[in-house]
Amino acid sequence: MYIYYDSRTGNVERFIQKIKLQRDWHFVKISQDITPQGSGHLITYTTNFGDIPRTTFRFMEDFGEKIKSVSSSGNMNWGKSFGLAADKIAEQYHIPLLLKFELSGLPQDVQALINRIEEISK
Predict the structure, then answer these.
(1) pTM attached to this predicted model
(2) Three-class SS of residue 47?
(3) Cα–Cα dist 35/94, whole Å
(4) Tell me: the pLDDT tens digits for 45-62?
(5) Domain architecture of the chain: domains with CATH
(6) Helices 11-20 and 107-120: crossing angle, nearest 10°?
(7) Which residues have a Cβ under 8 Å from the Cβ of 84 and sit 6 or more positions away?
């Protein structure tokens, strides 16, 4: 299982660390020089009150066909813009939005994501 992720402030990175404690999946941080080794799931963050991060946008433009689902970190203080990057990616690339979680997520968010990924990967 491949999990591609983008993190700027460390919230998504901390969320990924929590998943690593439970699953032996392949975790790949998005950068300019990566080439996805297989299809997988995207976890990103929302920036500027609802925007897709530029690094995530470029990744999806180049490799979006390899992504099966999207999830996003966000801040509930942003109201309707909470996790909006995931909504935009799901709509633009016609993939399921699995989860929006606040900041670095709670244990139940981690478990929910694992369960949903495993369910759609059957």
Answers:
(1) 0.94
(2) strand
(3) 21
(4) 998 888 999 999 999 999
(5) 2-115 (3.40.50.360)
(6) 70
(7) 46, 49, 50, 51, 72, 74, 78
